[in-house]
C-alpha cells in the first residue's frame, strides 16, 4: 500500500508517524507547491519523492493511495482528480464542503472501482468499539453531552485582522466542520441519523463559526455537542441512560479512556495501546485494501455521506455559507 500525501501541516506529521507503524504500508511521495515546505517531513520520514507538480504525482504508477490533508475547500477537486487518475483516496475530515460534492465523489469511486475513505479517527478506535459493546448496560438512553474545545493556534491571528484558512469561509473552515464534526460522528455512528438537527454558533464578522452548540433530536433522547476553537474547555462525552452512564474522558476524537458506571460501580475500559489516534483508522484502511473489501469501503462511504448531510444541514441552520454552496 503505497501512499502519497497532499499537505504539509501537523496532521500530516501525525499521519506519517502512524503510517510508520503499519506493516506493508508506506509513504512514497509528497506533494507541496514548494519543495522546501515538504522537505523537513520528507527527511524526517525518509520519503523518496517530493512533487511540486500535482499532475505528475497523480501520474506516478507507483502510488496506490492519495492522502488529502489540504484546506477543506480543495478536498473535492483533488479527490476527483486522484480518482480520475485511478488512485484510491483517503480524505481528511470534513470530506467535502457540500453534499453534492460528496455525492459526485461516491459515484466516481464506484464507477472506477476505487476505494474512498474519510479519515475520521473516532469510529475506528478500539475504545469506541468498547462503548458500542457496553451501551446496552445503560438501559434506555436519555441524554448525550459532548464537548470538544481547543483554542486554535490561529485564533489570535483572526483577532488581529488576518483570515487563516481554518477561519475562512472561502476555504470551508470553522468550528463545526473542523472540531464539532468529531462529536457528530461519535453520536451518529452509534445511533444513526437524528430526527432533527440544529446549530447555534458564535460567529466572526466574516460569517465563520468560531464555536457553537449542535443539538440532535432522536425519538427517545437528545444529544448536545459543543465544539469550540475560541476557548479551552473540559473535553468529554457523557452518555446517560436510565441504568447508568458512560464517561469518555478527553473528548470524542480520541476516546482515550472510558468509564462505565452502572449499579453504583465504576469500571475503566481501555483497549488502546498507542496515543496516535490515526494509527487505528490507517490500520482499518490497510486491512480493507488488503482484503479488497469494497463492500466495507462503500459501507463506510455511505455512512460518511449520511453524516455530511447532517453536517451541512447544521451549518446552514446557523446561516454559515461557503462559496461552494453556490450552484
Automatic annotation (TrEMBL):
Residues 138-246 form the GFO/IDH/MocA-like oxidoreductase domain. SUPFAM superfamilies: Glyceraldehyde-3-phosphate dehydrogenase-like, C-terminal domain, NAD(P)-binding Rossmann-fold domains. Residues 1-117 form the Gfo/Idh/MocA-like oxidoreductase N-terminal domain. It comes from the Bacteria. It holds the Pfam family GFO_IDH_MocA. GO terms for molecular function: nucleotide binding. This is Gfo/Idh/MocA family oxidoreductase. It comes from Neobacillus rhizophilus.
